[in-house]
Amino acid sequence: MAQTAQVEIKDAWARATPGKAENGAAYLTIQSPVADRLVGVFSPVAKKAGLHTMTMEGSVMKMRPLGGVDLPANQPVALKPGGMHIMLEGLNEPLQAGKSFPLTLNLEKAGQKQVEVTVEKAGAAGPGGQAGTDMPMPAKR
Amino acid sequence: MASRPANPRTPPRFALVAIVFAGVLVIAAGVLLALALRETPRGAAGTALASAIGGQFQLIDQNGKPFSDANLKGKWHLIFFGYTHCPDACPTALNEMSLALDRLGIKRDEVGVVFITVDPERDTPDVLKSYVQSFDAPIVALTGSPEAVAQAAKAYRVFYAKHPRADGDYDMDHSAVIYVMNPEGRFTATFTPDSSADAIVQRLQKLIS
Ligand SMILES: [Cu+2]
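ok -> structure tokens follow
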């Protein structure tokens, strides 16, 4: 059975948002069989969705929009806390733990991919209900 | 290389970076203090610095009640500057702080968590109230006029700046340091915003005892 390698999207999750917080962040791991580029995101839960990165310059935290995320062939690229994230701006309602929502990824070559994002509790540091302190600290640059 | 019994959650290299970083902060604070004392005539308005970090501020909490540096006395405090539109590092830091507080057990009442917004334009008391309510521990969230917030940030040597985006919205760049203030209201230690609740608890337990 011939099988075409597919773009693989794993562990799509978001953290429950506090109160009426307007913004949230979603994370996932994506791997493409060929070099590709993630150029856009869309979700019905927010007015706007975009690719962002969080960096520390000394002790100053900066968040910046990204034009895209390069996906080298067969290499998993992780969007995770303390690094790149999918920014959900102007949430229509708070992201609640236990729920999920659809997210569409726009790839230059592979086109549109849909994924379901699981909302973890506010203290989660990763998908699958991992408690915040059970995860290693984000890598330092 | 001989391995030492490192905390599995704290890779030695990270620990080293943290120590160096803390050292740099202390040195920087010392330099700032020296400069402030040298360049400003003693007794000039509000410059009698007890310490390089911490000082007078006059803000309001999430219930609209005044909250000043005087309210920090009599209890240990973790102080963190951030903004509610920040989707990643700010909620993470607040969450680890509130988990840490919880794990302090009977000593939890000896430590307060204070979140000071660097985005007073959007972070009104109401916004802050609903925001901090979702964390497990009681958090005091402070805002005020842009000038009052600037004064608080200055007291804590916190840098912040609006970073406009092409779409007309903006993000805030800001110093992301968790300050530990002792019951006399004096600066005692710092944590990086990605510190785990366990790391915070361990340190706090030593400080408080
Ligand atoms: Cu963002």
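The first strand of chain A starts at residue 8 and ends at 15.
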